[in-house]
Backbone:
């Protein structure tokens, strides 16, 4: 079970915001620093026979091609803990000499990948041996230097991974280790894959993210974070059935899991099942009543169901929470708009657009508010038109634009928008939120009702068992 005080961050794939844990993001890099320019020179001058980069990795793997087992350490020489400075040449040389003697003692192979990042292969070592070696190496460096080392380790054989995968696995473990701060040692595991998958997801490579999450579930079938991450991937792809399977599996593993139930509610909302959406929003709020997104979305669904009085109460609660913790500006705008505080709503939407010029929701809402405040219809139309350009599959945005065209006596243009909006509402296909000119992508056979066909395997079980 996770600490419920962990911060959330939003996906950027949808107009609705699914939640992931903020600790799943890659730690921010410290700006303004440069790599020591003479690092490669020091390396080549003092260790002319040691290879670097891909050539080193290929050579090492070739030498270990018949080895039944070996360990890999990804070794990062940390920046100074106080000043944040990179190692000076003499510090780097001390480290390189120690690494060289250490690998020589263990019959290991080592090389440089980046100025302060190195790989060490340890023949005939398993994961436990490699962790012991990593800890010994850390202690040895501290005896001669104030610098610390952060290490990620992996070992062959492991599951279905091949020898060539071990360096990448060690680097994923190293990425995982960075979350614990300088001096950490982390072995490759399901969390390492979850972090790697989240990196792929944030870069928009959903298929690669899913592959990482599936591998993680083979290692830890009940990992709630991974199950939630898988659900988010399928949700943004438009495969809502699979998304619900994963979110509910996460909730089954941890009944107090806020994100899983919240994301379940969002999926039902996207499917148009407002009653079930409300059920799960209320369930989430009962578990933890101080999450802005949960309170906001509960208020929003009440508004959509026609219960404005209850919706306003939740919006007021959401605004109180927004004063204590950061909240998405466009959501704050929705709260103010729902409560009838238009001036504050305008300010919030303007802030949202400043933060993200492609926020179609904020653009459309701001255009509509400008219209109700008596602004020039052409100015309001600019914002509404831009929202439709960004999210052409949103019928609400098109209706707002159509109304503005109507006020400007642009009847043909208004009629076009109204007809398009009606067609979108009547379409059987569920739109992918936030996607442009694209229909939902679904897994072959999912959702098809054909009693003659065998029942499809649960996507959760498929991910775990292959």
Residues:
């Amino acid at each position: 079970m996770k600490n419920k005080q962990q911060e959330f961050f939003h996906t950027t794939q949808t107009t609705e915001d699914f939640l992931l844990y903020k600790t799943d993001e890659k730690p921010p890099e410290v700006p303004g620093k440069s790599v020591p320019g003479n690092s490669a020179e020091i390396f080549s001058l003092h260790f002319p026979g040691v290879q670097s980069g891909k050539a080193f990795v290929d050579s090492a793997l070739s030498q270990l091609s018949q080895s039944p087992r070996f360990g890999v350490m990804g070794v990062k020489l940390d920046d100074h803990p106080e000043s944040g400075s990179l190692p000076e040449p003499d510090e780097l040389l001390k480290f390189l000499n120690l690494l060289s003697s250490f690998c020589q003692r263990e019959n290991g192979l080592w090389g440089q990948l980046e100025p302060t990042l190195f790989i060490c292969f340890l023949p005939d070592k398993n994961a436990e041996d490699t962790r012991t070696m990593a800890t010994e190496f850390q202690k040895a460096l501290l005896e001669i230097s104030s610098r610390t080392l952060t290490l990620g380790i992996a070992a062959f054989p492991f599951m279905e991974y091949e020898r060539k995968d071990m360096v990448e696995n060690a680097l994923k473990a190293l990425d995982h280790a960075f979350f614990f701060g300088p001096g950490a040692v982390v072995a490759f595991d399901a969390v390492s894959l979850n972090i790697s998958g989240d990196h792929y997801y944030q870069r928009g490579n959903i298929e690669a993210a899913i592959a990482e999450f599936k591998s993680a579930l083979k290692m830890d079938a009940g990992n709630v974070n991974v199950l939630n991450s898988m659900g988010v991937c399928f949700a943004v792809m438009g495969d809502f059935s699979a998304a619900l399977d994963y979110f509910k599996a996460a909730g089954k593993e941890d009944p107090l899991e806020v994100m899983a139930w919240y994301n379940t509610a969002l999926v039902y909302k996207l499917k148009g099942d407002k009653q079930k959406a409300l059920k799960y929003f209320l369930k989430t709020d009962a578990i933890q009543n101080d999450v802005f997104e949960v309170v906001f979305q509960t208020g929003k669904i009440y508004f959509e169901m026609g219960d404005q009085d209850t919706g306003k109460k939740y919006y007021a609660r959401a605004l109180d929470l927004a004063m204590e913790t950061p909240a998405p500006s466009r959501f704050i705008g929705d709260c103010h708009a729902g409560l009838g505080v238009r001036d504050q709503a305008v300010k919030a939407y303007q802030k949202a657009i400043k933060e993200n010029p492609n926020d179609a929701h904020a653009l459309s809402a701001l255009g509509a508010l400008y219209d109700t405040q008596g602004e020039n219809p052409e100015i309001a139309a600019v914002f509404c038109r831009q929202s439709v350009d960004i999210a052409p599959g949103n019928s609400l945005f098109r209706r707002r634009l159509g109304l503005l065209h109507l006020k400007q006596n642009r009847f043909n243009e208004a009629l076009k928008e109204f007809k398009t909006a009606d067609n979108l509402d009547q379409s059987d296909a569920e739109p992918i939120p936030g996607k442009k000119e694209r229909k939902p992508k679904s897994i072959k056979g999912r959702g098809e009702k054909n009693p003659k066909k065998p029942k499809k395997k649960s996507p959760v079980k498929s991910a775990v068992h292959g």
User: Anything to note?
Assistant: The beta strands are 8-10, 19-21, 70-77, 109-114, 117-123, 149-156, 185-187. The longest helix spans residues 89-105. The domain at 49-188 is CATH 3.30.70.270 (Alpha-Beta Plaits). Residues 75 and 151 are 5 Å apart (CA to CA).
